[in-house]
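Before going further, learn to read the protein records used in this course. A complete example follows; check for yourself that the lines match position by position.
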Amino acid sequence: MALAGTLVATLGLAACSKDPEPAPTTPTVTVDASVDPSKTDAPTPEGPIVYPLTGIKVDEVPQRPAIAVKVENTAAARPQSGLEDADIVWETVVEFEVPRFIAVYHSKTPESVGPVRSARPVDLHVAAPMHALLVASGAQKRMNIRIGRLPEIQSISHDAGAAGLGRISTRRAPHNVYADLATIWKSADANHSAPPSGELKFALEADEATAVVDGKGAKNIAISLSSAARPAWAWDAGSSTWLRSEGSAKAMTAAGTQLAATNLVLIESEQVDSKLDAQGGAMVPDQKFKGKGKALVATGGKVVEATWKKAGVSDPLELVDADGEPILLAPGTTWIEMLNKGKSSYTVD
């Protein structure tokens, strides 16, 4: 009996030493908590509607493409018509050190633009990224072939009889071809009818532009593009624009106003031989506008150093600061001076 009692006690102790059965688990139920709306993140508001090439606010963007017009810039061509209405104006150097403009239009429709001259290889870098209509008096055969190889560009040529281009009687040839943009816009084909995507980046307000926030004060910018091209720009606080001169003479429009720009951009890129010959075998230059290089951006009476980037002919131009952040321009017109690296120069004071 004592043995049996001991065995029972031992078994009872063993039974008590076993792990207890796990308690039944209660399923987890997730209930959305009620959150004070004032403590949630505010929704991102839609930005204002702006013209893609100027950043100026507008109720509705015109459903039409950009037009890039090749405009002469010699003494015989001045004063030009329509430059004051361009969204962007590029100044480049062609053969014989002569400057020419590529005036880009989208937001405004001037009555007349000109004098219009022939296309050059550098024009492709400007027109292709915007899928623009490239307006010129004509081009040599090999240049027309190059234009035809870029589906991003629609050629509008006076030599080819395009509507909207004609000669005026008050000037002598070849300085008398002028463009009617209202008519030319009607010629846009299905592949070149959409508004341009903006390459340049704009602040919502002028005082938020990169140069205004981070730049150094500047009153005058004198540029030596070539032996025949020495534009100068002076800051005018009254109009909040940079006013242009050709050397020491004010650069005027046909309407009698001085040419002005909200933003001025200087780009340094190497000038190269395009392999297209001009009169007497003269070299027709192109720009090595691929990769990256130095730039200067002037806005609001201030300047800031920048870097330009461009992957290829049809790729957009980027302007970035030392940290790689986009340069923001003030809403308005922009003039871009394309300097020949190593030969062109500028001074700021």
Summary: The longest strand covers residues 263-277. The CA atoms of residues 13 and 90 lie 98 Å apart.
